[in-house]
Fold each of these.
Amino acid sequence: MKRAILLIIILFSSTIFSQKKEVINEIIKKVSIDTLMNNLSILTGDKETSFGGGNIRITSRHRNSLGNTYALQYLKRKFEKIGLPVYQQDFLNDGQNIYAIQKGIKKPNQYVIICAHYDCMPFGDFAPGADDNGSGTIAVLEAARILSKYQFNYSIIYALFDLEEQGLLGSSYYAQQASMRKDSIIAVINLDMIGWDSNNDYAAEVHVQDVVNSIHLAQVFHDSNKNYEIGIKLFTNYPGSTASDHASFWRNGFTAAMLIESFKDFNFYYHQTSDDISKINKDFYEKMTKLAISVLSEYAGTEKDVEEIKTTPTAFYLSFNYPNPFNNSTKIRYNLSQETYTRLIVYDALGNEVFKLVDGIQKPNYYEINFDERFTKKLSSGVYFYSLQAGNYFAVRKMILTK
Ligand SMILES: [Zn+2]
């Protein structure tokens, strides 16, 4: 009897495991080089697309070209056709990021991001930017097209950043905002130049630095390449380049890595008007897209991954409350990296203690307190301070109540 139960358990768990692998195998088989090339031909101006009742050609996606906005509209429409909610994030005077969110089933507030920049070089009205970075942009769309038909435990964000070529401006803005909101981002997969392989050796690189779980993420690239028999000759580049959008996430303390073609076979046409669709190595591009999508699926996938990935903070930290100033309620967040005696105290402008929000031993975790009417109804408008004392960590922040 006991033996039978044990056998059933073993069979059951191995079924779950193989199911996941089967599903991911099924997913990557759906990557279509025809879809990739067709979308890329529109994004690079090789083919026309309908726009505002007529037809247009996206001949450039450079910041100073009107094509940058055409591209944005085209990409937005593609996400909408897939059926995902799309969000536009404006920054500076002319920067426009867009992203689509696919809600996770079990952990909807934790995110896996796949991203690419859609702007391009060189300056002027003709810049197809096929490899850099039409290739990554269209691969993100392909991920959305295929994965939107499946359910994942974590939420997936398909993000397309603007103004990477102007100094990672779009991703910097996004990552800073995400950090301020204390978004729980498990991994960021950045695709930048994934369609060039002049010698057909299938060599590519995953760029990584030792930030949070980034090294684990790079390992998942290698594991997926092997497990799903994708056929990329993958090298780890460590410490990886900071010249693309993943670096914005590293700078804000998030797990990230970049997939890119081999630096030993660098694109001859980089940042030139000749970086057009005819230079794309289709077979290589298809494999790179499959690799990216398999890694994304692994991360967004099963409950088991939740346990394997460290989700506790790596440092003590008191965030700046949001919103601030506020009139009724604001959120105060803090991170504890170790179990410790924790005190979170609110003071008035004269230094008198008004509330003890936390006073006791707490476990390592991310915490959030709604400083709402329960507290604010007893307070008048003005400046207040709150401090976090946790172990040797001490920080004070200012908040402004305007009634
Ligand atoms: Zn690029």
Amino acid sequence: MTTYDLVLANGRVIDPETGLDAVRDVGVTGGAVRAVSETPLDGTTRVDVTGLVVCPGFIDLHSHSVDVAGQRLQALDGVTTVLELEAGCYPVGAAYRRAGLEGRPLNYGFATSWAVARMAVLLGLEPTGELSDFFLNIGRDAWQRPAERAAVDRIVGLLERDLADGALGIGILVGYAPRIDPAEYLSVAGLAARTGLPTYTHARELVEMDPGTPVDGAEEIVRAAAETGAHMHYCHVNSTSVRHVDRVLGLVERVRAEGARVTTEAYPYGAGMTGVGAAFLAPELLHRRGLTPHSIGLLGAAGRLSGEAALREAREREPGAAAFVHLLDEDDPAQFAFIERALAFPDAAVATDAVPLLWRSGVADPLEWPLPPAAVTHPRTAGTYGRALRMLVREQGVLSLPEVVRRCTLVPADVVGAGVPAMRRKGRLQPGADADITVFDPAAVTDRATYDDTARPSAGFTHVIVGGEFVVRDAHLRTDAFPGRPVRAN
Ligand SMILES: [Zn+2]
């Protein structure tokens, strides 16, 4: 009889690709799943998981929280692969090198970054591949301006080189440079179409929110898919569409029916996060989104801003200070329904938009664990998947458990998938698949992070296994586990 390195015995095994949902033993050897069996398997390590769900590890398409501390929080939320695809990094080679040298608990991967390539060409920035390249220069006007054709060609040339170096696609933060020529966006989509890799867009403003936008943010994405043939992924459709989500999803549905490739993702929170000095938070513009100063709360401060004077004061004092923008009231069922429809949309992925941990002490120590109170973030960083399982399955019954599992595993694997062969071994739990496995208690799994206690880990994720190695075992994070491997396009 074969003896496997590790056997997870008697769990409820869910494999979204084959539709398996039954009690099985799972045998793992050498970092891969080798057997999924109705009869008991023999293992050097045999862990009984009776009553627990055993499924592919969750794949987060949208995490800006890529250091060790952020990954650990995500591990406790069931995640095994963390991808930075929306902002991306440029050059990706440097981002992969850094993660490889430092070591990561979870698998990681990066898209290239249109915004940073644009900063390189228009600001003369010398990019490092760190996310800070973008965040430190986000407010500078010169990178946001419409560009001449020759400059666009240079930007596209940089992106093309990065795709050849293994980038998983192109992150396009067009919403942060919302006045650029729509022709530039189409050029970038054209490059994606030629290389067979997806784009990941933070959309421009919708016409309902900014009648002066050069093009409606949703129309732009679906049109690029239809005109260029590129696979366009629509990031956090909940937070950029807010109350207009039905119109936006209707557009997506229509072009899909005509054969265009547009995929979507959403996170189950009503608040976004941005610098309090962001243009759209100017007191005179708030009404466009149905917001008031009371919709805004500063990270690390209790409660919301009291009024216009407090907002003006906060914007003046520290425009870069992180602020929650409560776009929709999560406690109002009619408002939460907008978010729910984005999550329940056919084939929508659950993705976090996890933000990097902010260290109020000023000194970041990504290896300190448990996290000290000085480390704060958006609760979605810590709780998106626990919350999706709690709310969508257990409390609201909007989607079945296997369907939510599919949206956390197979759906994101296939979004990245076509041009990235390594992703075909992820998001699946069957012989030959990578041994990235999440084991959770369906009756207890929940988020615990809140807007006041932002980095509190989720509960109910019993084991999280990456490449056959435990990162979370018996609900405890293993601080010595760094089995994360790069995911690259070639
Ligand atoms: Zn975004």
